[in-house]
Design a protein that fits this description.
The structure is a single chain. By secondary structure, the protein is an all-beta fold. It is built from one helix and 15 strands. The strands form four sheets. The chain has a five-stranded mixed sheet with strand order 9-10-11-12-13, with no helix packed on it. The longest helix has 6 residues. The N and C termini lie far apart (about 40 Å). About 5% of the residues have low confidence.
């Protein structure tokens, strides 16, 4: 817990070898329903859809804008995360090596933290790290990027953060990926050789359902596939389950 990722306060700066309650998150007030662990940070979602984060605030992965000194020392207790205006109730969360992803109940995906290789999915020209959560606007028809206008476009069911890449599963069962593409971790045909360290800055469609193959934005996939039921991302690879 030397980076505060256990959420136990300043007294628990070393490793803890037994399950210990994170007292700040009171189950009698707003029970935790989801929890996610990154390399050195942790996030939790409560019944009401509130988001909390703690641990090493490196590159902005906690989604809390702190000064440089606080970012180095870490956050040792859960802190409420403020999301962009219009964001709905949080229903999904994932922590990567140095970035984080959430999904709200309206199907909007948001990201924060380290943006090397485009893992945040914010598009070309947005290479800077993000200290606060931003909407992944490429899934929306409206270019304004506000969560409140995401009534059209691709609705996301789950967002998964890997070591240096991100994977998004739509409600329709389609799979999108962005970030570092070396070693084939994104699953994009023709890309991802061992020395291919270029990034994919906007989520690209990897697999889509057979019924959607005629859509012009789905022509670069491997071909028709059943709907994807589950997905997980590791440090350098991605796995998914076909329905």
């Amino acid at each position: 817990g030397d980076n505060g990722q256990l959420g136990l306060g300043r007294l628990a700066v070393q490793q803890v070898g037994w399950p210990t309650k994170v007292a700040v998150l009171d189950p009698t007030v707003d029970p935790v329903t989801l929890v996610a662990c990154g390399a050195f940070h942790t996030m939790a979602v409560t019944t009401s859809g509130a988001l909390y984060s703690w641990g090493r605030e490196e590159f902005g992965c906690l989604g809390i804008r702190f000064d440089r000194e606080r970012m180095r020392s870490g956050v040792d207790k859960p802190q409420r995360v403020r999301l962009p205006s219009g964001t709905g109730r949080v229903v999904g969360v994932s922590c990567g090596g140095a970035h984080s992803l959430v999904v709200d109940h309206k199907g909007v995906a948001l990201s924060c933290g380290k943006n090397e290789h485009g893992r945040l999915g914010l598009g070309v020209g947005t290479s800077a790290n993000s200290l606060e959560f931003q909407v992944v606007t490429s899934f929306q028809d409206d270019a304004m990027g506000a969560a409140s206008v995401a009534e059209e476009g691709v609705k996301i069911a789950r967002a998964v953060a890997g070591g240096s890449h991100s994977v998004f599963l739509s409600r329709a069962g389609d799979l999108y990926a962005c970030g570092r593409q070396s070693l084939g971790r994104l699953g994009i045909p023709g890309k991802g050789g061992e020395d291919d360290n270029e990034g994919v800055w906007t989520p690209q469609l990897v697999l889509c359902r057979a019924a959607d193959q005629g859509s012009p934005d789905k022509k670069n996939t491997r071909g028709p596939s059943p709907a994807i039921q589950a997905v997980s991302a590791g440090g350098q690879h991605t796995c998914f389950v076909l329905g």
